[in-house]
Specification:
Largest interface: A-B, 31 and 51 residues
Order of helices and strands of chain B: HHHHHHHHHHHHHHHHH
Strand content of chain B: under 5%
Number of domains of chain B: 2
Number of domains of chain A: 1
Shape of chain B: globular
Radius of gyration of chain A: 34 Å
CATH topology of chain A: Helix Hairpins
Low-confidence stretches of chain B: none
Largest sheet of chain B: none
Mean pLDDT of chain B: 90
Low-confidence stretches of chain A: 1-5
Number of strands of chain A: 2
Helix content of chain A: over 70%
CATH architecture of chain A: Orthogonal Bundle
Helix content of chain B: over 70%
Structural class of chain A: mainly alpha
Number of helices of chain A: 2
CATH class of chain A: Mainly Alpha
Structural class of chain B: mainly alpha
Oligomer: heterodimer
Mean pLDDT of chain A: 90
Shape of chain A: rod-shaped
Distance between the termini of chain A: 53 Å
Strand content of chain A: 5-15%
Number of strands of chain B: 0
Chain lengths: 215, 330
Amino acid sequence: MGGGNLPLAEVNPTRSELLELKRKIEFSQVGYDLLKKKRDALMLELFAAIKKAKDAREELDREYEIALEKIAVAQATDGIAKLKSSAFARTDTPDIIVEKQNIMGIEVPHISTVSVRKKLYERGYGIGNTSSRIDEASYHYEIVVEKIIIAAEFEAIIKRILTEIERTKRRVNALEHRIIPQLIETQQKIQTRLNEQERENIFVIKKIKKCMRGS
Amino acid sequence: MHKMDENYAYLNSRISAMKSKLIPMISYKKMLLMELPEITRYISEGEYKKDITELSRSFRGIDLIEYSLNLNLARTYQKLIDLSTGKTHDIIKLYMKRWDLENIKSILRGRLSDVNSKEIAETLIPVGEMKFSYLISLTKKDYGTIKKELENKGIIPSGYASLSELESELDKNYYAEMLHVIKTHEEKELEQYLLREVDMHNLKILLRLKKENAPFERIVNEIMPLGRKVTPGYIIKCKDLTFEETVSNVKKLFPTLQFRSDDSIAIIEQEVDKSLILYGEKISHLHMFSPLASLGFILRKYMEILNLRLIIRGKQLNIPPKTIERMLVV
Protein backbone atom coordinates (compact mmCIF):
# COMPACT_ATOMS: atom_id res chain seq x y z
CA MET A 1 0.00 0.00 0.00
CA GLY A 2 2.97 2.23 0.60
CA GLY A 3 3.47 3.44 -2.99
CA GLY A 4 -0.23 3.98 -3.68
CA ASN A 5 -0.23 7.65 -2.80
CA LEU A 6 2.73 8.58 -5.03
CA PRO A 7 2.24 11.63 -7.29
CA LEU A 8 1.76 10.85 -10.90
CA ALA A 9 5.18 12.33 -11.80
CA GLU A 10 6.82 9.53 -9.81
CA VAL A 11 4.77 6.76 -11.38
CA ASN A 12 5.43 5.44 -14.84
CA PRO A 13 2.18 5.62 -16.79
CA THR A 14 2.52 2.10 -18.07
CA ARG A 15 0.06 -0.72 -18.43
CA SER A 16 1.99 -2.87 -15.92
CA GLU A 17 1.85 0.00 -13.41
CA LEU A 18 -1.88 0.22 -13.98
CA LEU A 19 -2.28 -3.49 -13.25
CA GLU A 20 -0.12 -3.09 -10.12
CA LEU A 21 -2.30 -0.17 -8.98
CA LYS A 22 -5.49 -2.19 -9.56
CA ARG A 23 -4.04 -4.95 -7.38
CA LYS A 24 -3.12 -2.38 -4.68
CA ILE A 25 -6.63 -0.88 -4.72
CA GLU A 26 -8.22 -4.31 -4.33
CA PHE A 27 -5.79 -5.13 -1.53
CA SER A 28 -6.47 -1.79 0.23
CA GLN A 29 -10.20 -2.31 0.02
CA VAL A 30 -9.95 -5.77 1.54
CA GLY A 31 -7.74 -4.30 4.31
CA TYR A 32 -10.20 -1.45 4.79
CA ASP A 33 -13.11 -3.88 5.22
CA LEU A 34 -11.14 -6.03 7.66
CA LEU A 35 -10.00 -3.05 9.73
CA LYS A 36 -13.57 -1.75 9.87
CA LYS A 37 -14.72 -5.14 11.16
CA LYS A 38 -11.85 -5.16 13.69
CA ARG A 39 -12.83 -1.68 14.86
CA ASP A 40 -16.44 -2.76 15.35
CA ALA A 41 -15.40 -5.93 17.21
CA LEU A 42 -13.08 -3.88 19.42
CA MET A 43 -15.95 -1.54 20.21
CA LEU A 44 -17.98 -4.51 21.40
CA GLU A 45 -15.03 -5.71 23.51
CA LEU A 46 -14.68 -2.19 24.90
CA PHE A 47 -18.32 -2.03 25.99
CA ALA A 48 -18.00 -5.44 27.66
CA ALA A 49 -14.79 -4.33 29.45
CA ILE A 50 -16.42 -1.05 30.51
CA LYS A 51 -19.33 -2.96 32.05
CA LYS A 52 -16.96 -5.28 33.92
CA ALA A 53 -14.83 -2.31 35.06
CA LYS A 54 -17.94 -0.48 36.25
CA ASP A 55 -19.07 -3.53 38.23
CA ALA A 56 -15.57 -3.95 39.68
CA ARG A 57 -15.49 -0.24 40.63
CA GLU A 58 -18.89 -0.47 42.31
CA GLU A 59 -17.80 -3.55 44.25
CA LEU A 60 -14.59 -1.76 45.23
CA ASP A 61 -16.54 1.30 46.42
CA ARG A 62 -18.87 -0.92 48.47
CA GLU A 63 -15.98 -2.78 50.08
CA TYR A 64 -14.09 0.44 50.72
CA GLU A 65 -17.12 1.90 52.51
CA ILE A 66 -17.24 -1.19 54.75
CA ALA A 67 -13.48 -1.08 55.36
CA LEU A 68 -13.67 2.61 56.30
CA GLU A 69 -16.46 1.88 58.77
CA LYS A 70 -14.52 -1.02 60.28
CA ILE A 71 -11.32 0.97 60.66
CA ALA A 72 -13.30 3.85 62.18
CA VAL A 73 -14.65 1.52 64.87
CA ALA A 74 -11.17 0.05 65.45
CA GLN A 75 -9.65 3.53 65.69
CA ALA A 76 -12.31 4.70 68.11
CA THR A 77 -12.10 1.70 70.41
CA ASP A 78 -8.46 0.63 70.21
CA GLY A 79 -6.87 3.97 69.51
CA ILE A 80 -4.58 5.19 66.78
CA ALA A 81 -1.43 3.94 68.54
CA LYS A 82 -2.57 0.32 68.74
CA LEU A 83 -3.97 0.41 65.23
CA LYS A 84 -0.72 1.75 63.78
CA SER A 85 1.31 -0.72 65.80
CA SER A 86 -0.79 -3.61 64.44
CA ALA A 87 -0.32 -2.31 60.91
CA PHE A 88 3.47 -2.30 61.41
CA ALA A 89 3.33 -6.06 62.01
CA ARG A 90 2.39 -6.74 58.39
CA THR A 91 5.82 -7.16 56.84
CA ASP A 92 4.98 -8.89 53.57
CA THR A 93 3.70 -7.18 50.46
CA PRO A 94 1.12 -8.98 48.32
CA ASP A 95 2.49 -10.88 45.32
CA ILE A 96 1.00 -9.55 42.11
CA ILE A 97 1.27 -11.78 39.06
CA VAL A 98 0.90 -10.01 35.71
CA GLU A 99 0.27 -12.36 32.78
CA LYS A 100 -0.69 -11.63 29.18
CA GLN A 101 -4.00 -12.47 27.56
CA ASN A 102 -5.17 -11.87 24.00
CA ILE A 103 -8.25 -9.90 22.96
CA MET A 104 -8.63 -9.46 19.17
CA GLY A 105 -4.90 -9.71 18.72
CA ILE A 106 -4.15 -7.14 21.43
CA GLU A 107 -2.02 -8.15 24.38
CA VAL A 108 -3.78 -7.10 27.58
CA PRO A 109 -2.68 -7.75 31.17
CA HIS A 110 -4.24 -10.42 33.33
CA ILE A 111 -3.46 -9.50 36.94
CA SER A 112 -3.86 -12.03 39.71
CA THR A 113 -2.76 -12.00 43.30
CA VAL A 114 -1.69 -14.45 45.88
CA SER A 115 -1.27 -13.91 49.61
CA VAL A 116 -3.44 -10.79 49.97
CA ARG A 117 -5.92 -12.41 52.34
CA LYS A 118 -4.33 -13.76 55.46
CA LYS A 119 -5.57 -15.76 58.35
CA LEU A 120 -5.72 -13.90 61.66
CA TYR A 121 -2.67 -15.75 62.93
CA GLU A 122 -0.71 -15.02 59.75
CA ARG A 123 -0.95 -11.25 59.95
CA GLY A 124 2.21 -10.89 62.00
CA TYR A 125 0.76 -9.35 65.16
CA GLY A 126 0.34 -11.18 68.43
CA ILE A 127 -3.27 -12.12 69.03
CA GLY A 128 -3.23 -11.20 72.70
CA ASN A 129 -2.91 -7.45 72.44
CA THR A 130 -5.05 -6.83 69.38
CA SER A 131 -8.80 -7.03 68.97
CA SER A 132 -11.47 -8.43 66.68
CA ARG A 133 -12.10 -4.83 65.55
CA ILE A 134 -8.55 -4.71 64.19
CA ASP A 135 -9.03 -8.19 62.65
CA GLU A 136 -12.19 -7.03 60.89
CA ALA A 137 -10.57 -3.83 59.62
CA SER A 138 -7.55 -5.84 58.32
CA TYR A 139 -9.83 -8.39 56.67
CA HIS A 140 -11.88 -5.76 54.87
CA TYR A 141 -8.79 -3.85 53.74
CA GLU A 142 -7.41 -7.11 52.33
CA ILE A 143 -10.60 -7.45 50.29
CA VAL A 144 -10.22 -3.82 49.18
CA VAL A 145 -6.68 -4.57 47.92
CA GLU A 146 -8.03 -7.55 45.96
CA LYS A 147 -10.81 -5.46 44.46
CA ILE A 148 -8.34 -2.69 43.53
CA ILE A 149 -6.28 -5.26 41.63
CA ILE A 150 -9.36 -6.55 39.77
CA ALA A 151 -10.46 -2.98 38.94
CA ALA A 152 -6.92 -2.14 37.82
CA GLU A 153 -6.93 -5.11 35.42
CA PHE A 154 -10.16 -4.01 33.74
CA GLU A 155 -9.03 -0.39 33.56
CA ALA A 156 -5.74 -1.47 31.95
CA ILE A 157 -7.72 -3.57 29.44
CA ILE A 158 -9.93 -0.57 28.61
CA LYS A 159 -6.88 1.64 28.05
CA ARG A 160 -5.28 -0.92 25.74
CA ILE A 161 -8.50 -1.46 23.76
CA LEU A 162 -9.03 2.30 23.45
CA THR A 163 -5.49 2.78 22.15
CA GLU A 164 -6.05 -0.03 19.64
CA ILE A 165 -9.42 1.38 18.56
CA GLU A 166 -7.80 4.77 18.03
CA ARG A 167 -5.02 3.19 15.95
CA THR A 168 -7.47 1.13 13.91
CA LYS A 169 -9.68 4.18 13.38
CA ARG A 170 -6.68 6.15 12.09
CA ARG A 171 -5.84 3.32 9.68
CA VAL A 172 -9.45 3.02 8.48
CA ASN A 173 -9.66 6.77 7.97
CA ALA A 174 -6.33 6.85 6.17
CA LEU A 175 -7.44 4.08 3.84
CA GLU A 176 -10.89 5.56 3.31
CA HIS A 177 -10.00 9.19 2.84
CA ARG A 178 -6.42 9.20 1.62
CA ILE A 179 -4.83 6.01 0.37
CA ILE A 180 -7.69 4.45 -1.63
CA PRO A 181 -8.84 7.79 -3.20
CA GLN A 182 -5.23 8.61 -4.15
CA LEU A 183 -4.71 5.16 -5.64
CA ILE A 184 -7.94 5.51 -7.61
CA GLU A 185 -6.93 8.99 -8.71
CA THR A 186 -3.51 7.75 -9.82
CA GLN A 187 -5.16 4.83 -11.58
CA GLN A 188 -7.50 7.21 -13.41
CA LYS A 189 -4.63 9.50 -14.39
CA ILE A 190 -2.57 6.59 -15.68
CA GLN A 191 -5.64 5.35 -17.53
CA THR A 192 -6.13 8.83 -19.07
CA ARG A 193 -2.44 9.03 -20.01
CA LEU A 194 -2.57 5.58 -21.54
CA ASN A 195 -5.72 6.51 -23.48
CA GLU A 196 -3.99 9.67 -24.66
CA GLN A 197 -0.94 7.68 -25.67
CA GLU A 198 -3.17 5.28 -27.58
CA ARG A 199 -4.90 8.14 -29.36
CA GLU A 200 -1.50 9.69 -30.13
CA ASN A 201 -0.30 6.38 -31.50
CA ILE A 202 -3.41 6.03 -33.66
CA PHE A 203 -2.93 9.58 -34.89
CA VAL A 204 0.77 8.92 -35.68
CA ILE A 205 -0.09 5.67 -37.48
CA LYS A 206 -2.79 7.48 -39.45
CA LYS A 207 -0.30 10.25 -40.30
CA ILE A 208 2.31 7.68 -41.46
CA LYS A 209 -0.31 5.87 -43.55
CA LYS A 210 -1.35 9.21 -45.14
CA CYS A 211 2.28 10.09 -45.91
CA MET A 212 2.89 6.67 -47.40
CA ARG A 213 -0.24 7.03 -49.59
CA GLY A 214 0.82 10.55 -50.71
CA SER A 215 4.32 9.44 -51.67
CA MET B 1 11.32 -4.56 96.42
CA HIS B 2 10.68 -1.48 98.51
CA LYS B 3 11.12 -1.83 102.22
CA MET B 4 9.28 1.41 102.99
CA ASP B 5 6.11 1.22 105.02
CA GLU B 6 2.79 1.51 103.25
CA ASN B 7 1.34 5.04 103.17
CA TYR B 8 -2.28 4.11 102.45
CA ALA B 9 -3.81 7.08 104.26
CA TYR B 10 -1.75 9.57 102.26
CA LEU B 11 -2.03 7.63 98.99
CA ASN B 12 -5.79 7.18 99.30
CA SER B 13 -6.36 10.84 100.00
CA ARG B 14 -4.28 11.76 96.93
CA ILE B 15 -6.18 9.17 94.88
CA SER B 16 -9.47 10.68 96.07
CA ALA B 17 -8.25 14.10 94.95
CA MET B 18 -7.25 12.71 91.56
CA LYS B 19 -10.53 10.82 91.24
CA SER B 20 -12.46 14.02 91.85
CA LYS B 21 -10.79 15.48 88.76
CA LEU B 22 -12.01 12.65 86.55
CA ILE B 23 -14.83 13.40 84.14
CA PRO B 24 -18.14 12.40 85.76
CA MET B 25 -20.02 9.54 84.07
CA ILE B 26 -23.00 11.78 83.32
CA SER B 27 -20.79 14.04 81.18
CA TYR B 28 -20.22 11.31 78.59
CA LYS B 29 -23.90 11.25 77.73
CA LYS B 30 -23.90 15.05 77.52
CA MET B 31 -20.88 14.91 75.23
CA LEU B 32 -22.73 12.60 72.88
CA LEU B 33 -25.21 15.42 72.28
CA MET B 34 -22.46 17.98 71.61
CA GLU B 35 -20.79 18.81 68.30
CA LEU B 36 -17.16 17.79 67.83
CA PRO B 37 -15.69 21.34 68.31
CA GLU B 38 -17.63 21.66 71.57
CA ILE B 39 -16.28 18.34 72.82
CA THR B 40 -12.68 19.20 71.93
CA ARG B 41 -13.05 22.57 73.66
CA TYR B 42 -14.50 20.86 76.73
CA ILE B 43 -11.54 18.44 76.84
CA SER B 44 -8.88 21.07 76.10
CA GLU B 45 -10.14 23.41 78.83
CA GLY B 46 -10.02 20.75 81.53
CA GLU B 47 -7.35 18.42 82.92
CA TYR B 48 -5.82 17.81 79.50
CA LYS B 49 -4.94 21.46 78.78
CA LYS B 50 -1.24 21.09 79.61
CA ASP B 51 -0.81 17.95 77.49
CA ILE B 52 -2.65 19.47 74.54
CA THR B 53 -0.54 22.64 74.67
CA GLU B 54 2.63 20.57 74.83
CA LEU B 55 1.78 18.42 71.83
CA SER B 56 0.15 21.16 69.76
CA ARG B 57 3.38 21.73 67.83
CA SER B 58 3.53 18.12 66.64
CA PHE B 59 -0.12 17.21 66.03
CA ARG B 60 -3.32 18.83 64.81
CA GLY B 61 -7.06 18.23 65.20
CA ILE B 62 -8.41 15.01 66.66
CA ASP B 63 -4.98 13.33 66.51
CA LEU B 64 -3.74 16.05 68.89
CA ILE B 65 -6.53 15.25 71.36
CA GLU B 66 -5.90 11.50 71.15
CA TYR B 67 -2.14 11.77 71.63
CA SER B 68 -2.74 14.22 74.50
CA LEU B 69 -5.05 11.70 76.18
CA ASN B 70 -2.27 9.10 75.97
CA LEU B 71 0.30 11.55 77.35
CA ASN B 72 -2.02 12.47 80.21
CA LEU B 73 -2.59 8.79 80.99
CA ALA B 74 1.18 8.24 81.13
CA ARG B 75 1.68 11.23 83.43
CA THR B 76 -1.18 10.29 85.75
CA TYR B 77 0.07 6.71 86.11
CA GLN B 78 3.61 7.97 86.68
CA LYS B 79 2.29 10.24 89.44
CA LEU B 80 0.59 7.25 91.05
CA ILE B 81 3.84 5.25 90.93
CA ASP B 82 5.70 8.17 92.54
CA LEU B 83 3.09 8.59 95.29
CA SER B 84 2.94 4.93 96.26
CA THR B 85 5.35 3.09 98.52
CA GLY B 86 5.99 -0.46 99.65
CA LYS B 87 4.15 -3.35 98.05
CA THR B 88 1.57 -1.03 96.43
CA HIS B 89 4.44 0.65 94.61
CA ASP B 90 5.82 -2.72 93.48
CA ILE B 91 2.43 -3.94 92.33
CA ILE B 92 1.55 -0.72 90.46
CA LYS B 93 4.96 -0.74 88.77
CA LEU B 94 4.49 -4.32 87.72
CA TYR B 95 0.97 -3.57 86.51
CA MET B 96 2.36 -0.73 84.37
CA LYS B 97 4.93 -3.06 82.87
CA ARG B 98 2.23 -4.10 80.41
CA TRP B 99 2.64 -0.71 78.73
CA ASP B 100 6.38 -1.31 78.43
CA LEU B 101 5.62 -4.58 76.70
CA GLU B 102 3.16 -2.87 74.36
CA ASN B 103 5.82 -0.30 73.51
CA ILE B 104 8.42 -3.01 72.89
CA LYS B 105 6.00 -4.86 70.61
CA SER B 106 5.35 -1.66 68.64
CA ILE B 107 9.08 -1.00 68.27
CA LEU B 108 9.85 -4.56 67.16
CA ARG B 109 6.96 -4.59 64.70
CA GLY B 110 7.90 -1.18 63.35
CA ARG B 111 11.59 -1.93 62.91
CA LEU B 112 10.83 -5.32 61.34
CA SER B 113 8.76 -3.48 58.71
CA ASP B 114 11.44 -0.76 58.42
CA VAL B 115 9.11 1.98 59.67
CA ASN B 116 10.91 5.23 60.53
CA SER B 117 11.67 6.23 64.10
CA LYS B 118 9.23 9.18 64.15
CA GLU B 119 6.28 7.07 63.13
CA ILE B 120 7.08 4.36 65.68
CA ALA B 121 7.49 7.02 68.39
CA GLU B 122 3.89 8.14 67.75
CA THR B 123 2.64 4.71 68.81
CA LEU B 124 4.53 4.69 72.13
CA ILE B 125 2.73 5.40 75.37
CA PRO B 126 5.45 5.96 77.98
CA VAL B 127 3.61 4.64 81.02
CA GLY B 128 5.86 1.82 82.21
CA GLU B 129 9.26 1.64 83.79
CA MET B 130 11.25 2.12 80.61
CA LYS B 131 12.32 5.69 79.97
CA PHE B 132 10.86 7.31 76.87
CA SER B 133 14.36 8.37 75.74
CA TYR B 134 15.47 4.71 75.88
CA LEU B 135 12.45 3.60 73.86
CA ILE B 136 13.19 6.32 71.28
CA SER B 137 16.82 5.17 71.07
CA LEU B 138 15.55 1.66 70.32
CA THR B 139 13.42 2.92 67.44
CA LYS B 140 16.61 4.07 65.70
CA LYS B 141 18.27 0.65 65.78
CA ASP B 142 17.70 -2.26 63.44
CA TYR B 143 15.43 -5.17 64.34
CA GLY B 144 18.21 -7.69 65.02
CA THR B 145 20.14 -5.31 67.31
CA ILE B 146 17.01 -4.39 69.31
CA LYS B 147 16.04 -8.04 69.72
CA LYS B 148 19.52 -9.03 70.87
CA GLU B 149 19.74 -6.08 73.27
CA LEU B 150 16.36 -6.82 74.85
CA GLU B 151 17.18 -10.54 75.08
CA ASN B 152 20.48 -9.77 76.80
CA LYS B 153 18.67 -7.53 79.30
CA GLY B 154 16.14 -10.30 79.97
CA ILE B 155 13.24 -8.10 78.84
CA ILE B 156 12.15 -10.49 76.11
CA PRO B 157 12.64 -14.26 75.95
CA SER B 158 15.16 -15.59 73.46
CA GLY B 159 14.75 -18.29 70.84
CA TYR B 160 11.63 -17.03 69.08
CA ALA B 161 12.03 -16.44 65.37
CA SER B 162 8.42 -15.41 64.78
CA LEU B 163 7.39 -12.06 66.23
CA SER B 164 3.79 -13.12 66.92
CA GLU B 165 5.05 -16.13 68.94
CA LEU B 166 7.42 -13.85 70.82
CA GLU B 167 4.56 -11.45 71.60
CA SER B 168 2.41 -14.31 72.86
CA GLU B 169 5.26 -15.56 75.08
CA LEU B 170 5.82 -12.04 76.43
CA ASP B 171 2.18 -11.86 77.53
CA LYS B 172 2.36 -15.30 79.17
CA ASN B 173 5.56 -14.42 81.05
CA TYR B 174 4.12 -11.10 82.15
CA TYR B 175 0.96 -12.58 83.67
CA ALA B 176 2.95 -15.40 85.31
CA GLU B 177 5.26 -12.84 86.93
CA MET B 178 2.40 -10.60 88.00
CA LEU B 179 0.48 -13.50 89.54
CA HIS B 180 3.58 -14.70 91.33
CA VAL B 181 4.21 -11.27 92.90
CA ILE B 182 0.56 -10.84 93.92
CA LYS B 183 0.50 -14.30 95.48
CA THR B 184 3.70 -13.48 97.36
CA HIS B 185 2.02 -10.36 98.76
CA GLU B 186 -1.11 -12.39 99.59
CA GLU B 187 -3.43 -9.99 97.81
CA LYS B 188 -6.41 -12.33 97.35
CA GLU B 189 -8.82 -9.91 95.62
CA LEU B 190 -6.14 -8.64 93.31
CA GLU B 191 -5.26 -12.23 92.45
CA GLN B 192 -8.93 -12.89 91.67
CA TYR B 193 -8.99 -9.82 89.44
CA LEU B 194 -5.86 -10.89 87.60
CA LEU B 195 -7.14 -14.44 87.12
CA ARG B 196 -10.32 -12.98 85.70
CA GLU B 197 -8.24 -10.79 83.42
CA VAL B 198 -6.41 -13.90 82.17
CA ASP B 199 -9.75 -15.66 81.68
CA MET B 200 -11.06 -12.74 79.62
CA HIS B 201 -7.82 -12.60 77.65
CA ASN B 202 -8.09 -16.34 76.91
CA LEU B 203 -11.77 -16.03 76.12
CA LYS B 204 -11.19 -13.34 73.50
CA ILE B 205 -8.39 -15.37 71.91
CA LEU B 206 -10.58 -18.50 71.87
CA LEU B 207 -13.48 -16.70 70.19
CA ARG B 208 -11.34 -14.90 67.63
CA LEU B 209 -9.48 -18.05 66.64
CA LYS B 210 -12.70 -20.11 66.57
CA LYS B 211 -14.25 -17.51 64.27
CA GLU B 212 -11.21 -17.89 62.02
CA ASN B 213 -11.47 -21.71 62.07
CA ALA B 214 -7.91 -21.87 63.38
CA PRO B 215 -6.36 -25.28 64.02
CA PHE B 216 -6.87 -26.58 67.55
CA GLU B 217 -3.09 -26.63 68.24
CA ARG B 218 -2.87 -22.94 67.37
CA ILE B 219 -5.59 -22.09 69.92
CA VAL B 220 -3.89 -24.15 72.62
CA ASN B 221 -0.56 -22.43 71.93
CA GLU B 222 -2.06 -18.97 72.23
CA ILE B 223 -3.98 -19.63 75.46
CA MET B 224 -2.39 -18.67 78.77
CA PRO B 225 -2.26 -21.69 81.07
CA LEU B 226 -3.08 -19.53 84.12
CA GLY B 227 -6.79 -18.84 83.86
CA ARG B 228 -9.44 -20.02 86.28
CA LYS B 229 -12.31 -20.82 83.95
CA VAL B 230 -10.90 -20.56 80.43
CA THR B 231 -8.12 -23.06 80.91
CA PRO B 232 -6.43 -25.43 78.44
CA GLY B 233 -8.90 -28.06 79.76
CA TYR B 234 -11.84 -25.86 78.75
CA ILE B 235 -10.26 -25.31 75.32
CA ILE B 236 -10.12 -29.12 74.86
CA LYS B 237 -13.84 -29.26 75.69
CA CYS B 238 -14.50 -26.68 72.97
CA LYS B 239 -12.34 -28.51 70.42
CA ASP B 240 -15.15 -29.79 68.20
CA LEU B 241 -17.55 -26.89 68.75
CA THR B 242 -18.33 -24.36 66.04
CA PHE B 243 -17.98 -20.63 66.70
CA GLU B 244 -21.71 -20.28 67.44
CA GLU B 245 -21.68 -23.28 69.79
CA THR B 246 -18.60 -21.88 71.55
CA VAL B 247 -20.38 -18.53 72.06
CA SER B 248 -23.37 -20.30 73.62
CA ASN B 249 -21.05 -22.33 75.81
CA VAL B 250 -19.17 -19.20 76.93
CA LYS B 251 -22.48 -17.55 77.82
CA LYS B 252 -23.18 -20.45 80.19
CA LEU B 253 -19.69 -20.17 81.65
CA PHE B 254 -19.98 -16.41 82.25
CA PRO B 255 -23.70 -15.74 82.78
CA THR B 256 -23.05 -12.16 83.88
CA LEU B 257 -21.65 -11.14 80.51
CA GLN B 258 -24.25 -9.02 78.71
CA PHE B 259 -24.32 -10.30 75.15
CA ARG B 260 -26.64 -12.29 72.95
CA SER B 261 -25.57 -15.51 71.22
CA ASP B 262 -26.04 -13.88 67.82
CA ASP B 263 -23.99 -10.75 68.63
CA SER B 264 -20.91 -10.05 66.53
CA ILE B 265 -17.54 -10.98 67.98
CA ALA B 266 -16.63 -7.25 68.24
CA ILE B 267 -19.66 -6.64 70.49
CA ILE B 268 -18.89 -9.72 72.61
CA GLU B 269 -15.30 -8.56 72.96
CA GLN B 270 -16.45 -5.12 74.04
CA GLU B 271 -18.73 -6.60 76.66
CA VAL B 272 -15.87 -8.75 77.93
CA ASP B 273 -13.55 -5.71 78.24
CA LYS B 274 -16.31 -3.64 79.84
CA SER B 275 -17.20 -6.34 82.39
CA LEU B 276 -13.55 -6.67 83.43
CA ILE B 277 -13.13 -2.94 84.02
CA LEU B 278 -16.40 -2.78 85.94
CA TYR B 279 -15.42 -5.83 88.03
CA GLY B 280 -12.06 -4.21 88.88
CA GLU B 281 -13.81 -0.97 89.76
CA LYS B 282 -16.26 -2.89 92.01
CA ILE B 283 -13.62 -4.80 93.99
CA SER B 284 -11.50 -1.65 94.38
CA HIS B 285 -13.91 -0.51 97.11
CA LEU B 286 -13.54 -3.69 99.18
CA HIS B 287 -10.37 -2.79 101.08
CA MET B 288 -9.32 0.82 101.35
CA PHE B 289 -5.97 -0.08 102.88
CA SER B 290 -4.68 -2.23 100.07
CA PRO B 291 -3.41 -1.81 96.49
CA LEU B 292 -7.02 -2.35 95.35
CA ALA B 293 -7.80 1.37 95.78
CA SER B 294 -4.98 2.17 93.36
CA LEU B 295 -6.27 -0.45 90.93
CA GLY B 296 -9.69 1.20 91.07
CA PHE B 297 -8.19 4.55 90.13
CA ILE B 298 -6.01 3.03 87.39
CA LEU B 299 -9.09 1.46 85.83
CA ARG B 300 -11.22 4.60 86.22
CA LYS B 301 -8.57 6.71 84.51
CA TYR B 302 -8.17 4.16 81.74
CA MET B 303 -11.95 4.10 81.36
CA GLU B 304 -11.98 7.89 80.99
CA ILE B 305 -9.37 7.76 78.22
CA LEU B 306 -11.27 4.95 76.45
CA ASN B 307 -14.56 6.82 76.63
CA LEU B 308 -13.17 10.18 75.53
CA ARG B 309 -11.36 8.58 72.61
CA LEU B 310 -14.48 6.70 71.67
CA ILE B 311 -16.58 9.85 71.70
CA ILE B 312 -14.19 12.11 69.77
CA ARG B 313 -13.22 9.49 67.19
CA GLY B 314 -16.79 8.26 66.96
CA LYS B 315 -18.04 11.79 66.30
CA GLN B 316 -15.23 12.48 63.84
CA LEU B 317 -15.89 9.28 61.92
CA ASN B 318 -19.67 9.73 61.98
CA ILE B 319 -20.41 6.64 64.05
CA PRO B 320 -24.07 6.93 65.16
CA PRO B 321 -24.40 8.24 68.77
CA LYS B 322 -26.44 5.15 69.71
CA THR B 323 -23.55 2.89 68.67
CA ILE B 324 -21.04 5.05 70.58
CA GLU B 325 -23.27 4.97 73.63
CA ARG B 326 -23.40 1.19 73.56
CA MET B 327 -19.62 1.04 73.36
CA LEU B 328 -19.03 3.43 76.28
CA VAL B 329 -17.72 1.93 79.52
CA VAL B 330 -20.04 3.47 82.11
